[in-house]
Amino acid sequence: MMKLNLKARILLALSAVILAVACSTDDDHFQSTNISTRQTTETDSVANDSVTTDSVETDTVKGQEILPPDEIGANPYVKFYSVDEEDTVKVTSGESQTAQAPLDIQLIGNVGNPDNYNYICEWRIWSTKDNGSEENPLVTRFEENTTYTLTKSGGYGIKLYITFSLDGDTIEYESEPINIVISESKLVCPDGFSPNNDSINDTYRITAQSIVKLDAKFFNRWGEKLHTATLATAKHVEGEPNKLVLWDGKRNGNVVSDGVYILRLDAEGSDGIKYKIKKSISVMTKFHEGTETDSGGGSSGGGGDS
């Protein structure tokens, strides 16, 4: 019995050693496989992240002039056509711009919301006169994108506030102010013009800066109304943003005769100044730059007006 027990013990010991070696080999194989799998997964993850990032960047860039933020928030801007710049201007947070009234502005939220929160936008526009602030706004709008018209001279601040919410989580966003300054008004009417197609002073043009209302009428010396002009019908002179064309000197398609005519003009500036002008203007088709006018330049007024 002692010999059998010894053999049994030897066999048992050998079996334990063999089993331990086998288990160790399996563990090494498992660990090796596990590491290999993890490396493959990490590589795939990096590759997928790269593809996702490229895709987002491509989608974001398409059709966008000002990119929204990558995280919860916004990159708001104000867009308007500037007579001074003769172009469309975009003013972003922290920037300022000077313009003339009346100024139609578009307020663009440009919200970034990658986690698909619910959100409410609030635009505030306030006057910076008399220590005004966003706590006492002139106007409040709750659309993400909206419009407004500035008609008074002075400085304005514009801010966008957004409240994001999702499953009880709330995030408050507040933009930097956008500042717009509306210039004071100016109105000057010349004494005449020469509609003779020499490309010099061919139209009756006034200097008009930040004029928000305008009604102009031209009469001959017998009181017949020949032409009317408003802000809607007047045109800005290319390259001269403060110049407005009120009349081309024509009635029924024909240039009126040389002579003296009457202008009656009522206007209002962005600063509240009211202009009432009644003056004589001369039409001088025979006048050319650098030469004297021919005789009879200023006395007649009725001929050619019918």
SSE layout and pairings?
Layout: H1 2-61, E1 73-74, E2 77-82, E3 87-92, E4 96-99, E5 103-108, E6 111-112, E7 118-127, E8 139-141, E9 145-150, E10 154-166, E11 169-174, E12 178-182, E13 186-188, E14 192-193, E15 204-209, E16 211-219, E17 225-230, E18 235-237, E19 240-247, E20 250-251, E21 254-255, E22 259-269, E23 274-283
Polypeptide structure, described:
This protein is of the alpha+beta class and 306 residues long. Among the domains are: 73-182, Immunoglobulin-like (Sandwich), CATH 2.60.40; 186-283, Immunoglobulin-like (Sandwich), CATH 2.60.40. The chain is built from one helix and 23 strands. The strands form six sheets. Strands 4, 7, 8, 10, 11 and 12 form a six-stranded mixed beta sheet that branches. The longest helix is centred in the N-terminal third of the chain and has 60 residues, at 2-61. The termini are far apart.
